[in-house]
Structure formats: C-alpha cells, structure tokens
Amino acid sequence: MTQAVQFHDLALLTPDQRAALLKRSEADLSGFIDKVRPILEAVRTEGDAALLRFARDFDGADVKPGQLKVSEAEFDAAFGLIEPAVIEAIKYGIANIKAFHEEQRPEPMWLKEIRPGAFAGDRWTPISSVALYVPRGKGAFPSVTMMTSIPAVVAGVPHIAIVTPPTADGSVDAATLVAARLAGVETIYKCGGAQAVAAVAYGTETVRQALKVVGPGSPWVVAAKRLLSGVLDTGVPAGPSESLIFADDTLGGGLAALDLLIEAEHGPDSSAYLVTHSRRVAEEALAALPDHWARMTEQRVAFSHAVLSGRSGGIVLTRDVEDSYRFINDYAPEHLEILSTDPFQHLGSITEAAEILMGPYTPVSLGNFVLGPNAVLPTSRWARTYGPLSVTDFVKRSSIGYVTAKAYDDLARNAKTLATYEGFSAHANAVSDIRKSYL
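The structure corresponding to this sequence follows.
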C-alpha cells in the first residue's frame, strides 16, 4: 500500500476537479461495449453452447452440457454445506426483508368516481417473467439473492429465475442456493456476466427468456444491459458499489473510517468517500484507517485501499455543512450514511440519495443484509430519478375506466370539442350522435 489515501479539500479544487469526484467506474462503458457485442451475439445464435464456452473461458468453470440449470439435488445438498448460524442469519434477514416489502405491495385495484357515474382507477398485476442477476466475481452474495428474490415473490411473479456465475467445479455458491430456496425461488442458471444478460434476453435451450432483468453487476453486466435495453427491461441501473459517509462534528472520525470501508471493500471499481466539514473528523478518520485495515482480510484491504487511494474514493473536506449537503446531492449516492447524534437535523437538506441510513447505530452493513429495505440501489447518480428495487419493480400498472350511461353525455361533449380542435375526426365521431345511433 504505497499510495496514500486521497484527501480532497473541496475549497481548493477547481470546478473540473470537483466534477471528477462525481464520476463512477461505469460512467464510461466505451471500453466494454465493443467487447460485449460479440458475447451477446454468440448467445443469441448458439444458445447453451455459448454459455458453456463462456463459463469455461471467463469463469474458469467446468459446467457440463445439460447442467446449466441447478438441480433439486444441488439445492438439497447446499443446506449441509454451510454453517447452521449462516442459515439462521439468512432466515432472519429474509423475515425482515419480507416484512418490509409486504408493506410496499400496492392494492390490486382501486376505482374512484371522478364524476357521477364515471369511474377511473388503477389495476396492478405481476410481470409474467423476471430474471435476477446475482454477482459472484468478488465474493458470494446470498444477500443479493434475498434482496432481489423477495420483492419478486411478494409481487406474485409466476416465473422467477436467478442467473449467477458458476464456481470452478461448475456449482453455485451454497449460501446463494439456500437463500433462494428460503425466499421462494428454485430456478437458478449457472451463467454470469454479459452472457447471462443475453441468455435471459433471448432465451436458450435451457434458459427461459424473461421480460425483465434486475440486480447489480460489473461494467460487463451494465454494458450488456445497455445494449439489450431494447430487448428486455433492464430495471434499476445498478453497477459497482458506491457510498458516501457524511459525518458532522458530533462523533469521532474513527467511526466514520470504520464505515467508509464497508462499500470500499467490494472491489477496486467501487466508489467511497467520507464527506465532512470537520477537519478534526477528517484527520481522525485518516489516522484510524490503518488500525481498521489490520483487522480485515488481505483481499478486502487491497480492494478498499485501491478505492480510497484512487480516483473514486477518499476523504472530502467541505467548507461547511451546507457545502456538504451540496456535494452529497450532486453525487447522488447509492448508499448514504448520516453519522451524527442528531441525524434528523440533516435529513431535510438531502434529497438525492437512494438509501439514507441515519445515526451511529445504522451502518450500511445492516442495510445490506438484515434491516429490511432493499439494498439493490441505483448507482452512477441514477438516484436522482430512480429509487431502490421494490415490489413495484415486479408489477405493472393498468389504468381502468368505466363510464355509465348517466355520465356519458357530459364526458362525450367535452371530449368531442377537444378532438375536433386537435383535428381527429375519428375521435370526434366516436363520441358523436353516431355512437348514440348504435346504442
């Protein structure tokens, strides 16, 4: 670790330097788009054969023909491969996540009497088929399985499938299988990366075509989703992990440093900043990082140090609390922690964040695993227009209208006036006396 942690004094930066802090790793996909195109085309034309080849070439995995889909026996065996404590933690997380998402479920249908005898409303029905992407490259993520599966199950989607990269022996992470079954999903395909997105977009001999794919992934996955956005719904734009830890001067910098490392340890393509207007907090955080790294595994130290010493991480010292708010809203983070003894005093000034976790007892770790709100979140500033993955991502809304004879004349007269003004004669005829002659 020869490179120092980045320390950005916002008051000293030029506009271009400040803008550079807002960039994410997937913001420029030009290096991936051209590489992904032939992968997508190979899956479209070759189907399973391409998936088996890419599993070997990209994942180093030995997946046999006919074994792209996880078998019932593999699901059963998974429960004996992980510690009982892990299974209990998965059950605990699923219970909380399910309770949260059940509150999101919209009323199946509502109608309001807009005028006497004229009714309008909405009806919600589940999407018929969805695919859930669970990454594998930098670790195993049963938590992502839980976060993507549960809202889909709660929504009532009839056909739910998980796609996830296989391990070297052609299997799937055991905890992921356990989480999937306990969440209510038992269709899992052993494919990842851009090829998995292509498989659910086009369908193969084994993989069922889906109408939508959701879940976080690498820039390869993000590039594939972008190229296939005209073939299937690619859902919440979720790329590599990112977080802002906002700390005022009511807590110590060591705590801020502890939480700064949470998302930074996901991988070198993550983004993570501590944002504070307190120089004391900033300096204490910088001093505390070595002690925190000493208690982490070598791989996660390498990942988090690469982030904090690179172009997408470090410590940002702002002029004052208003400057901190401006930076946070400009950044529009995936995860935001408000480290303060009174976090609610700051909440009203922050409008652009996908997840806001408040106070010293609410680290991102709780949100990622067991608190309940969904941890599949928009990245790369998409929090400005998207929210977290939810039950409503797995249902579609139809407008409902019902007009009785009592209400028809008044509505028809006004509709005909507007149709005539806009030059639509068929529209006007449909609400004219011609209709009455048929009725």
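Residues 409 and 431 are 9 Å apart (CA to CA).
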